[in-house]
Amino acid sequence: MVGSERDYLFEQFRVERGCLGYVVADPDTRRAAIVDPELEMADPILNYIFEHGLKPVYVVDTHTHADHISGARELKAKTTAKIVMHEKAPASCVDIRVEDGDRLHLGDLSIKFLHTPGHAKDLVSALLPGRVLTADALLIGSCGRTDLPNGNAVRQYHTLYYTYRALPDGLLVYPGHDYQGRDHSVLGDEKESNPKMLFASEEEFVEYMERENPAKLTPVYHLAAALKANMA
What we know:
The protein is an alpha/beta fold. It contains six helices and twelve strands. The strands form two sheets. Strands 1-2-3-4-5-6 form a six-stranded mixed sheet, covered by helices on one side. The longest helix has 12 residues. The protein is globular. The termini are far apart.
């Protein structure tokens, strides 16, 4: 099936806290990209890569994570992969900076980046054949919080109601977090039933995200440590 999600290797990794990371690879060239590796995922990801004879060329951090330490530097140190982030990412270790619409190629497989800010100003989603890796821009039945540093509820609204609503309904959604053991959803279902995508106006969405939503969320106790490590 040309252009389908079956044309490439795809593997999801999960840690106990619900963080999700991914490996995607072209089956012919074996060139691979690692997306959003949490530090605890580094060794399992390396084992998977070596077991499948893959050549990691990119480590993509979709944004500056505030709730966990990224494994990107660890994986870069143990492979020849280059770290990829959005052009606004503050980290000094970035090798390749991407903008909205940029692509990276893994043989015949390409990854298209969509700038999807709101949870963070430097957040990008990764569009693949049949799938979209949404990080914290779109979660299953929710979206990333906007009350952390560099969050912006207005930008989050535009990401959900313009960028994501413009994408095909049939795309499989693979987020950066899930706390209920789910691994993916379908974009059309999110458009129809995700409460964060059903507000009647931008004003109502922003009011909720800025005032009501933060009170319902668990404080990020290691926020400063995670940001310090991931921005270095």
